[in-house]
Amino acid sequence: MSWYRWHGEDLELALRVQTRAPRDDFVGVDPSGDYYRVRIQSPPVDGKGNQSLKRFIAEEFGVAPSHITLLSGEHARYKRLRIQRPRLLPIAWCVLLRRIKFNALICVAVPIFLN
Questions:
Q1: Three-state SS for 5?
Q2: Domain for residue 21, yes or no?
Q3: What is the pTM for the complete model shown?
């Protein structure tokens, strides 16, 4: 599986999460190409890391945290999550996706307007 996949209007992501980072940030595609690396500040204790990850992803993609579903990896650094109807794409992702010949219309119009 690639690190992203569209399911209709929902976006599924495969992430490698680094906790206890200096700031929340997108790092880039993992060398394997199977995961996108993300850093978050929170420690992986009592679900705080997952909550912080959901908040960060929700903010970056323009959705409420309740629209982020953790599909797998609750207690692991490798996670799969689904974003319901993302409204935005982070600029760094647009540049990367255009480089791999993704639909350029989505990246030109940030935010994404879905009917």
A1: strand
A2: yes
A3: 0.80
Question: How many domains is the chain built from?
Answer: 1
63 domain residue, yes or no: yes
Q: How far apart are CA 51 and CA 11, in angstroms?
A: 19
Residue 32's domain is classified under what CATH number?
3.30.1200.10
Q: Which domain holds residue 75?
A: 4-86
Residue 111 lies in a domain: no
Residue 58 placed within a domain? yes
Counting beta carbons within 10 angstroms of the beta carbon of residue 14, is it exposed (0 to 12), middle (13 to 18) or buried (19 or more)?
buried
* Residue pair 84/66 in contact by the 8 Å Cβ criterion: no
pLDDT by position in tens, the chain (length 115): 589 898 988 999 999 999 999 999 998 888 888 999 999 999 999 889 999 999 999 998 889 999 999 999 999 999 999 999 988 877 666 666 655 444 444 444 344 444 4
**Strand residue runs (E) in 66-112:** 68-72, 78-83
